[in-house]
Amino acid sequence: MDHMIRRATKHALLAVALCATTGIAVAQPLLPRHPEYERVINLDTYEAGLLEASGHPNEVERWHGIWAYDNGRMDEARRHFERAAYYGDKLSQHVLSLMCWNGDGGARDPVQAYIWADLAAERGNIADLLQVRERIWSQLTPSQQEQALDDGLAFYRRYGDAAAMPRTNRELRRFLRNRTGSRVGLVTSRVSISLGRPDVFQAAGGGARLTPGPHGASGDRFYADARTRPGAYWAAEDLSVRTLLRQIEQGQVDVGPVTPAKDSRPAE
Description:
Blueprint: H1 2-19, H2 43-52, H3 57-70, H4 74-86, H5 90-102, H6 110-120, H7 127-139, H8 142-159, H9 161-177, H10 183-188, E1 190-191, E2 199-202, E3 208-211, E4 217-218, H11 219-222, H12 225-228, H13 230-250
Antiparallel strand pairs: 1-4, 2-3
Helix pairs in contact: 1-5, 1-13, 3-4, 4-5, 5-6, 6-7, 6-8, 8-9
């Protein structure tokens, strides 16, 4: 079990690194600092990622968490991933689960590891997240399982989708309202920004593939529905996480049929 969870940690943190690069090829996973490890991201990539994440607090905090983790600052990384989780970021919740399991930045806490894993798998549409949750649950003692169920209620009130997604949805609407220029201008102009994550496209036959993000984007792309409309945004986020984890697990880009994500927008 420990081997499987450590392998899952490597996969999840490499997925974070994939989100943090302008391409999809990353030589090393995110690991604690060690002289023989190369840095996963550099300062330019980090700053470009923050620019691209503008208006998306979950992504901004995820970037800060990646940068802190890559620099060996585990306590700081955990704080940023928790802030991302506060905005419903499932990848950050997954990483927090694995950090708690392995004791990154503190003592091992299998109970919190399960709670974060349960939150990460809350939507039930990403098999890799469900699998890690069940693996962790199977390794808890009966008393730990009972504690996880009891303690998890407070976590869900703060980090569950019912509470977290409306926070991000408000920020997405604010981001869209604050865009500049006319719609005609947005279509024809380019936004000067480097994109800090790969783009996921639906391929023919219902699959998905990753392509390196461009070094700039037109305004209509930067403010696309998948970046500004809550329902489309959450569906795109789920597809990104599913594709990244599946690609790393299988060593390939094609991930097979994509399960449509439910429209998770809360009632306004």
